[in-house]
Give the backbone structure.
Amino acid sequence: MKFQILLGAALVAIFSSCQPTQDQQSQEENSVPAGFVSYGEGLDLESPHKIGELSSLLEGKDSVVVKVEGEIEQTCAMKGCWMTVKNELGEAMRVTFKDYGFFVPKEGQEGKRTIFEGVVRKAVVSVEEQRHYAEDGGQSAEQIAAITEPQEVYSFVASGVLIESEEVQN
């Protein structure tokens, strides 16, 4: 009987020590910067690069891990599995998400500031892949048919994304 009581007390102590405390839960919830919603791995607001800086960051390298900021132009209307982000000159770059491990909202994100971190490299996007993205983005059959040439782009696979929340926009 004493053994069962001791065993029970030991199990309670072990399991209760594995549960996060109230302070730990609050710290985890507060790790997202104020005014943003986080997707994927967490990241902070410190020192993001502009999209226009990517060519110099990639100079002489196949790929680089970098944090970037821009304005969301569009998100995948089917699943939220990609977004296009435009730079200060209005040029857009497609951002996909590491291992399809997370998605962003499918609508209502256009014009919002975003900061994302991951691996960027130069890539050639086939006509077939461009048409797939155009279809996911809700483009017309005519717009999809007009895609006839492969395109050299920056390929960005993000491990984490921050998107400006509604409160900041208003």
